[in-house]
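Sample A.
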Amino acid sequence: MNKAFILIIEDDLQIQELLSHSMSKEGWNLTQVKTGEEGLKILKTKAADCILLDIMLPGMDGLKILKKIKEIEQCRNVPVIMTTAKGEEADIITGLELGADDYVVKPYSPKVLIARVRAALRRQEESGSNASVTSWRQGGIKLDAARHTVHLGETQLDLFATEFALLKHFISNPEIVFSRNQIIAAIHGHDYPVTDRSVDVQILGLRKKLGKAGDMIETIRGIGYRFKVDDS
């Protein structure tokens, strides 16, 4: 995806210049804005392929902007990478629960950030172009990868991109126990710097949306998780 559209919402001009210089070599189409309000205006007319979003912004902060981004229909599955100087666990959890796919704490290496954007774009491309995708049904849950939909009974669920990827991984590999590192590798790729805590938070969010069916995602103490097949 050489001509991917990357929207950068960042008010620090030095960081904007750094990112512009670093990412220009990737062949991406970059648009940089200083406020979340400017970013939302652009996204309502054109969906980005990936969004880099700072939390500490003038006007509406990044977490509020993230929530509004996910309310835009064409942006529901667009990967969002939060970039911020705040590294407290509470901020990380809030961002993930609101639908962020990743979280990078400043100061960060432009090379690492670019690698994460590449991974996000690769996941988007694979999910949209894989001709061999199928659908799975377990315990009232039906996931259709081709249509990118999940139904619980007759109700269609509204999942974030990472939640969908997690459920697809679990439901297509029932009864197999995966460590957190294996889950990270399956969803984000090998050597992807995501914490165990991030995986736990995203699985917790998925369980909540699945309701009672969320119990099918079992915690295997000391190891990780597995998707238990409902035999009823």
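Sample B.
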Amino acid sequence: MSCRIDDLRNKQVVCVKDGCVLGFVSDVEFDTESGILTSIIIYGRLRFFGLFGREADTVIPWKDIVVIGEETVLVTSDSAMCINKT
């Protein structure tokens, strides 16, 4: 399966260890010298409707990604930033 970065955005990210929803892919990081994707980024939740900024972003290294599906990305990352249990 081939996937564009635009297709990767807004996919739900789920931890396979405990089924915790971490959020949605907001951005990606890649190495400009080699052109290799290094991580995906989930933006932090807004604090008080965005008036007080956001929580810290969650960066998930590429090595922690298990599979990229049609609607979700399964990862083996720490679920400290869990939104809700599924």
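B remarks: The chain has a mean pLDDT of 83. The two ends are 26 Å apart (CA to CA).
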